[in-house]
């Protein structure tokens, strides 16, 4: 009996060690340059990826980066397919009903990208009768539905901003509403010379939230505390600035 009890306890200890060593599954989009991109070998890179890796290193935990379409990230978190989402996800009241967010780790605003020479000012009135591309499940999509659709614009939904840009440059849509950092990155692509940024700085907190945060399940309070502590550290020790300067010519945190 003692031998059996000892074996059972040993198995439980080993199981606990194995479970402790399981990596945290960190999800990002993978098709949202320069925040997250998928390389030819299938590995992930970008601002969000580097931030995630820096946080994992600071917390001294193993992490596994995985990619998923943006509109499936929150459902995947809730279903426990992922543990952490580092995907330039704006902190909005609607999303806070479903998941918990870390402190802000980036700011930014949204803008329009359209073909050069259209002479549009980006106001709702100027976009009447125009086709606006937005990515499904994003704050840009919500804003366009609330502000531009009632003014007479037609909205086109895309799974990725890269696909949307193809239709912008081909003339199938008139403009793409996108986060400013992504707009700068699109300008660097071969087709980027065909487009320009225009319109107002779109950052109404009612729609765009108070910056982007790292999402976790609501019951992961300990993990959330560790993420916030690690985030404060990488900002204070210069790691955040180093990553920022690798991808942006401005302070992405503001």
TrEMBL record:
Organism of provenance: Vogesella oryzagri
Position of the signal peptide: 1-20
Major subcellular location class: other
Localization of this protein: Cell envelope
Domain Solute-binding protein family 3/N-terminal: residue ranges: 23-251
Entry keyword annotation includes Cytoplasm: no
Keywords linked to the UniProt accession: Signal
Taxonomy, superkingdom: Bacteria
InterPro entries tied to this protein: SBP_3_CS, Solute-binding_3/MltF_N
Name of the molecule in the record: Transporter substrate-binding domain-containing protein
Family that this chain belongs to: Belongs to the bacterial solute-binding protein 3 family.
This protein's record includes keyword Isomerase: no
